[in-house]
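Input sequence (361 aa), recorded before submission:
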Amino acid sequence: MACALELGRRGLGRTHPTPAVGAVVVRAGQIVGRGWHTRAGEAHAEIVALRDAGPRARGATLYCTLEPCTIEGRTPPCVGAVIAAGVRRIVVGTIDPHPRVRGRGLRALRAAGIAVASGVEEGAARELIRGFASVVTRGRPWVRLKLGASLDGRIATRSGEARWVTGAAARARVHVWRDEFDGVVVGSGTALADDPLLTCRRRSGRDPVRIVLDRRLRLPVGARMMGEGRSPVWVVTDGSASSARHRRLEKAGAHVLVVRPARTAPWIDTVLGELARRGLTSLLVEGGAGIAAAFVAASRVDELALFLAPLLIGADGVPIIEAMGVTRLSDAPRLGCVATERIGSDVLLSFEQPTLRGRRA
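Predicted structure, token format:
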């Protein structure tokens, strides 16, 4: 299963809106077939592994990080192929959270006389599909908020200088994440101040969809991200900007998404729903302080990744997060720290965001 999980991780950021899955076929204690899901519309991991094993799959054990599917999509259901291959046993990491599949694949395999074990390395298997699971169960992508700051919580000096608060090792880790996430999100303030590319600078890496939340369409047509990178640029507005700005950005190569605010939910919620409908299952939110505050206040952060650099900027620097209107400590979001790690000269703190003001994302 560890091997299957490692194979499945190769699909992160590449398979949306379908999940990243890995599989191996084992016969007489030896791996005879390997496979992972490479992109939506291509063969699923178990099919690739069974093809790799060929006739050696008969009587073997199939290890798969996710329950084989039972529904017809762009590819046929996997359960039938698993049964036809003649495997004796299947070991599954986690069941499929999709309501049309959940448990049905395992029941069909058992009915065909195949021995089934599930829940092996379940935590890691669930982590592999957390974006897919978020969309099918909550209707929105899984969100990691990335912040980098000085020890006193500043992301830039009072003059606006921000390159670089954190070190090279921390920036390299962010490029790993960009390779693994479907989309990367910044606000218009960050896009204007930093003029970022938002690309992945890893060898053999891929660029996420680059998303700028820009209600007034302030992004200039000459922004660096317009002319560089291998992925699209989506500029999200609420419809209040002029149609002329809309046309200029479209002509420059951006795709402008008009997402009008809902009366009963924060704009962030509406945006996340639209991004999910467009196939994105995981988002890396990189700032700035206003976007960070909006996501936290709406309780739409599943994980906060905070890089702390060993320097002090002072109270006149730019704060890590803008005002959220918190007047009582009981209303402040309290985060559960799940991991700490030294990254070069910096420290990475990883937090989960629990219930905020009685609501859960």
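Checked by second reader. The chain has twelve helices and 16 strands.
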